[in-house]
Fold Daunorubicin resistance ABC transporter ATP-binding subunit.
Amino acid sequence: MSVMSTTCKPAAITTAGLTKSYGDKPVLEGLDLTIPEGSVYALLGPNGAGKTTTVEILTTLIDGDGGTATVGGHDVARGGAAVRDLIGLTGQFAAVDGLLSAAENLQLMADLCHLPKAEGRRRAARLLERFELTEAAGKPSSAYSGGMRRKLDLAMSLIGDPRIIFLDEPTTGLDPRSRRTMWEIIRSLVADEGVTIFLTTQYLEEADQLADRIGVLHEGRLVAEGTSDELKAMIHGGHISLRFNSTAELQRAAAQFASITRDDEELTLQIPSDGTVATLRAVLDVLDAAGATPASLSLHTPDLDDVFLALTGADKKQEITR
């Protein structure tokens, strides 16, 4: 996760009461966001939650029905041209012309950004080097791997030197190595150039690794928002799992705790825990005094998977602190 402080920075993106419906189906129902400059914001949500619709409104591809949204200080409804001058967009599917090479795709984007020819070539060469595409620069992009096409797609969105970049599920379909390469590129954009990243993703690890703040969107509403640690703290369910060598030791251990989950067949005991070292030490001290030494133990703390499942209603067993 990015460690860059976002305290007191001006907002790069804001929405207030943003709504959107298609026919009688509401997609966004009063979305409120404030995203500081030079930060990474990840919007999580299941399919149909409204993530892509949010990106499309903020990038002026579609209009919202109600509420307001600003990007770089410009109202997206009234200042669309100014917004488009500030942003870059990488969608779910690579917008790469397979008949053109990487160099030609980049030059085409430079022309669309109305860059002088020399400046366009300079930026294209710099991006090819940065994204490790120089050796393949002259080959048709249809011959590229999925990871190379996604890198080229992101490079194309950067040709205009945007200050705010929208990445709509940018690593969908990539193998783990290519995904991590993209993560490093995204981190460097923020750390080295101070850009703002608005990221939608279904990969919870991706949000955990990259985002300063995370919003969870469910059925068009923002149901939670905070840092990764803040969101995890909302979910109860952490526990210490202990395995014993004998039934006698399991019984002695179980007798020491009021709230447990016991499995006599597996000789395991689960004890609720807040995940701290102090709690673990206290549990082990109690077991030692009772003469019940575990053969092994593991510590489980809620992760973003637990948060996502609980907040989107997929896991009714989780308890949420609001």
Observations:
- The chain has two domains: 11-96+144-233, 238-300.
- The CA atoms of residues 95 and 153 lie 6 Å apart.
